[in-house]
Write a structure and sequence with these properties.
Elements (H helix, E strand, L loop, with lengths): L3 H15 L4 H17 L12 E5 L4 H10 L8 E3 L6 E6 L5 E6 L3 H8 L5 H11 L2 H4 E6 L15 E3 L6 E3 L4 E3 L2 E3 L1 H5 L9 H7 L5
Parallel strand pairs: 1-2
Antiparallel strand pairs: 1-3, 3-4, 4-5, 6-7, 8-9
Helix pairs in contact: 1-2, 1-3, 2-3, 2-5, 4-5
């Protein structure tokens, strides 16, 4: 690492934001610093703030660290989770259109075991993430990111209203069926929740038998 003092400062901030120090904070801080460097962004919290959009590929600890270092936020639509279950992130410069995907080197788990024999998996990972070089830890690939207008930071692009539930739908997330507007929940019946019904709950438990 080029600047250990800066790394320590960022790691302290990430730890405070996340709530505790873990290997995810170490690797996330280093991954974010490396990704910003590849993109040529030196001041993500200041002059470069509106240039940057970050996609992380897992809703795990390292995502909090990436968020801390980059200043990107879900509410600002500059921090996006594409949950592929991978410790990887893509850094997009909205001004230049350039983007780099940073991931862990393939074969890294085996390399960590080889370098740090006799340690537990967590102990070995912590030492590796602190000590190994960026090139040993990370792979970098320049990629093309096609960001739709409705996915960009800023105010909502569109607003619509579902004809069933009446709720407002932002940023072209509505579903059109025979020229009628539905939200995705009402129009496709695909939802992460089900409506709570005390009577149905009692029926399922056999209370009325």
């Amino acid at each position: 690492m080029k600047d250990e003092r800066e790394f320590k400062r960022l790691l302290d901030e990430a730890t405070a934001f996340h709530g505790h120090l873990c290997t995810g904070q170490i690797i996330g801080v280093r991954l974010a610093i490396f990704g910003l460097g590849e993109l040529g962004i030196s001041d993500p919290l200041g002059a470069d703030r509106k240039k940057l959009v970050v996609f992380v590929e897992a809703a795990r600890c390292f995502a909090d660290a990436v968020m801390t270092v980059t200043g990107c936020r879900v509410g600002k639509r500059s921090f996006k989770i594409v949950d592929n279950g991978k410790v990887a992130a893509t850094f997009l410069n909205m001004t230049t259109g350039r983007a780099f995907r940073i991931g862990l080197q393939t074969g890294l788990p085996e390399e960590i075991v080889r370098r740090y024999p006799g340690l537990t998996e967590k102990e070995a990972e912590k030492k590796a993430y602190m000590e190994m070089t960026d090139n040993d830890l990370f792979s970098s690939q320049e990629v093309k990111v096609s960001l739709k207008e409705e996915d960009t930071p800023g105010t909502p692009v569109t607003k619509a209203r579902c004809i069933v539930c009446g709720e407002t739908i932002l940023d072209k997330r509505e579903v059109l069926i025979i020229d009628r507007t539905f939200c995705r929940l009402c129009g496709t019946s695909q939802s992460y929740y089900t409506l709570h019904s005390p009577i149905l709950e009692k029926l399922e438990k056999g209370f009325f038998r």
